[in-house]
Amino acid sequence: MGGTNADGRGPDAQTPPYRTEDRSGIAGENRRHESRGETMDFDVIDARPRLLDWAAWALFLDIDGTLLDLAPAPDDVVVPADLPQRLESLSRRLSGAVALISGRSLENVDRLFPGGRDVAGTHGVEWRRSGKVDIVGAPWPDELTEWIREEARHLTGLLLERKPCSLALHFAANPKIEAEVHSLAMTAAALSPIALKLVRGKNVYELVPAGTDKGKAIERFLSVPPYAGRIPVFIGDDLTDEDGFKTINRLGGLSAHVGSRATAARYRLNSPEEVRHWLARLDSLIGDAP
């Protein structure tokens, strides 16, 4: 590839010792105000030698739309048979520094990926490392759920997903009601006895305790072993992942968005299938490293 690399150096800048012709790697780093980049080989993911030390990465992965293909409803997603084993392999190679960063609750994540993995659930409200769980924020007010359920009776196609610490309002079955769902959620946030913020995702609005997001969850992991001192890498697809991308960028790590929309992420993958291929390639590269 001609021209300069992401850090302004020429095409002869240092690259890792193991090259590959695989062109399914992360897409090129976007310039500061661009939303898309051209595809780059995996081995020129970044010209800075520190970032090429794959075995020193801490890997943070969103689930829906990133590891898994999206489905009409959260319970309809399918976990590819080889994916849990792939995550286990990467975790071993990275000394345990692999965590799932999801909007799903811990209980829901565990149904998809059993084994008590390190997870930030409910957009960072639930946090688990080495089997120890911590909940950030006040308990969810059940009376608010009942009020929303009553007010939403006329909204055909709305699915309410009650989580331990939040409430998601899914409207994928009827996107035409988005404006009404948004208005209902905003009113609910204003009436809530605890401080809430409204998080927007793909065909969903979610009410979560204020003061939490995926970026803060990632920073918390990076403050403790085995994540501390490692190079943070985060892959996500949704608007709820933007806080994570911004945190990773600020910390000098690698951020990758799955899809084609405008994003703060500096790299791009096209689909969950491509993410899974990318993870397989990463697993192989770390395993082959001297």
From TrEMBL:
Residues 1-35 are annotated as: Disordered. SUPFAM superfamilies: HAD-like (SSF56784). Its cofactor is Mg(2+). Its EC number is 3.1.3.12. It holds the Pfam family Trehalose_PPase. It catalyses: alpha,alpha-trehalose 6-phosphate + H2O = alpha,alpha-trehalose + phosphate. InterPro entries: HAD-like_sf, HAD-SF_hydro_IIB, HAD_sf, OTSB-like, Trehalose_PPase. One of its GO terms (biological process) is trehalose biosynthetic process. Residues 19-35 have a biased composition (Basic and acidic residues). Pathway: Glycan biosynthesis; trehalose biosynthesis. Keywords: Hydrolase, Magnesium, Metal-binding. GO terms for molecular function: metal ion binding; trehalose-phosphatase activity. PANTHER family: TREHALOSE 6-PHOSPHATE PHOSPHATASE. Belongs to the trehalose phosphatase family. Removes the phosphate from trehalose 6-phosphate to produce free trehalose. This is Trehalose 6-phosphate phosphatase. The gene is otsB.
